[in-house]
Design a protein that fits this description.
Oligomer: single chain
Bound molecules: sulfanyl-(tricuprio-$l^{4}-sulfanyl)copper, dinuclear copper ion
Distance between the termini: 77 Å
Largest sheet: 6 strands, mixed
Number of strands: 44
Radius of gyration: 26 Å
Strand order of the largest sheet: 8-9-10-11-16-15
Structural class: mainly beta
Length: 620
Amino acid sequence: MKERSLSEADVVAALKTYTPTGRKDEYYIFASGGHGGNLIVVGVPSMRILKYIGVFTPEPWQGYGYGDDGTREVLAGGRVHGRDITWGDMHHPALSETNGQYDGEFIFVNDKANPRVAVVNLKDFETEQIITSNLIESEHGATFVTPNTDYVIETSQYPAPLGGEYADIKEYNDKYRGAMIFWRFDRAKRRIVKDESFAIELPPYMQDLADAGKLTSDGWAFCNSINTERATGGNLEGQPPLESGSTQNDMDYFHVINWKKAAEVAKTAGKTKMIAGMKVITLDTAISEGLLHFIPEPKSPHGVDVTPDGEDIVVGGKLDTHATVYNFKKIQALIEAKKYEAKDPYGVPILPYQDAIRGQVELGLGPLHTQFDDKGFAYTSLFIETKVAKWNVKELKLVEKISTHYNIGHLVAAEGDTVSPDGKYLVAMNKWALDRFAPVGPLLPQNFQLIDLDGSGNGGKMQLLYDMPLPLGEPHNAQMIKADKLKPWDIYKPVGMDPTTKEHSPNTVEGGKERIERKGDTVHVYMTAIRSHFTPDIIRVKQGDKVQIHLTSLEQAHDATHGFALDSHNINISLEPGEHSDISFVADKAGVFPMYCTEFCSALHLEMAGYFLVEPKGKK
Ligand code: K7E
Ligand code: CUA
């Protein structure tokens, strides 16, 4: 202790996080990779990074989007207006739930920049689907799942004409709109089904975070909005900049949406309009069917989080010092009694604020997001004050605060979004690192800080345990799940599984049946990989041939991964034990191209290589 200048508290923290070799973590965190467009898997309490999962961005180590047809197809699902988008701005991962509990089967993620949602299967930690709609042009209130994962919620942020049409910004009030999309998830198919999904048109406020109701409030969704002023910016056109134009009102609108009823309305003929291939409940229909209500909310709010019992909804107002606690039963009574204090310019009924809240709790500067534990406490991030505030949900009383370093955004507690959170651990996701780590130039990592909620060894108070730099994009939010809820596969079994379809590939190659076949202008190479060779290891084609390599790993040993790299073709495959991959390309350049295994799989790994020979056109 003396030699390293450690305090007693430091040693307690070390004891609570040190994880000897071979010992496994108690929880997994699934953190968004922010601009990296990937998902980051971290163990808690060790805070060791366990995996990156390529989602919106091609990822070479996993061979994700580098030649393999399956992953290329997944990425193609995320084309927007016909363009390949090879990055993402991931914010909010959401674990699949059964009865409001994380079930460890899937995780959904969003891309704020190019409104898209992805499905990741937790059997093999691979992205299976990316889906997009040209209805909206950006989003933020995504992804949030309903308690049985019937729907994945995706809400627009910056209004635009629905369906990708053009309208000048002077027509903002009339032509620009927001929308909340309810993507239908079919668990058996492991896919979001677009035809069974629907959207609700919303006024052109900037809808922000969302959450789904649970237990008492199951069937409902909640969403914040900013910029109810409908400012458009235009600071070179004589208008105030957006930041001041959008912060004039003391109150914005908390959106209350009856999604269960909306799902019924969406199924009724004539009640929806098709826009950009999406079933849309128009704003007028949403109002006349009683699907949408507003309640004033203070001021430029950000986070919205439903309590574990589903009774209350906590809203953090960035420019307010309070968290506001709305009560679902009160809201419902107001809706039933049609007790409206006004209507917004689009005719959406506004419920009276004072009658809808249970109260407010004064927390400090810049409250954003809230998580919950198993003992009736809530934890709210204070961005400006750069602290976490612990407070009593029932009594609306501040208990204590702990500093974070620095500028905390989201925070995640163990099982924190479920109907039965675990408490125990909290991770603060901080935007600034400043002086925490050795300097690495002007761009610094983000800082995850592990906080002990039990306070054992710290007099019952929250204790900061560990700092973890994360230098790969801004990971806005995360989910923390008990490790034993996940049952990932060790290998693909039987040999020949295509990870994208999770089915035995029709192109699987059996050992001993390797061959090269020409069918018209396409050369099919039926190839296997096993320590330490590819069969065949020489492939001859003619310039201009279409080539399809059907590559099966015959391995069934845990962790016996091979790679397959082909020089000059931007092809790099990761081949997990038992995996089958199809690789299609055109051999348009004559030459000699080495191919080799990119994982050090065995003593003769360097010898796991071969040649791809492309004979020039016209050569006799
Ligand atoms: Cu950064 Cu949830 Cu997108 Cu708050 S969001 S921090
Ligand atoms: Cu197979 Cu290296």
